Amino acid sequence: GLLMTIAFFTLALSEFALALGFARALIPSKGSYISVLLLNLAGVGMVVTGIFQGDVKSLHPPGTTTSLIHWIGAGLSFLSLMIATFLLSNCFKTDSRWRPFQRSSFALSVIIVLALVAFGAFVMLGWVGIGERIYIAACVLWLLCASVQLWRLVL
Length: 155
Description:
Layout: H1 2-25, H2 30-51, H3 65-94, H4 99-125, H5 128-154
Helix pairs in contact: 1-2, 1-5, 2-3, 3-4, 4-5
């Protein structure tokens, strides 16, 4: 409903903002460039997810074209963000300002993967919403921690 749509757009905005912050704060490299690109792609996926609502009443989503587009947007966002977190963890290793956050970032990246596995398990049980929220919570935790670290470096 409306609350999830607002959540998807807010998540997209946070991904775009963090991508901009990383573009300015990270040492330029192939990995940082790809990571920023993937964060922006994750934001685009969340916008698509917010525009096209999921089919929550269908037993086997996606049941409609709109729901299919919602799932494609979510999948694009989930995969892009997950890859970006691992690439950024690697970038943090080579930047002395970010090195203290590298292990935490990597651990949170692993938690995101585990949350995605849990999401898959919940989908098989028909509990899509619960799995989705667990995965989004893990992603938001990484985004929040990375944002706090970026804020500390800027100050």
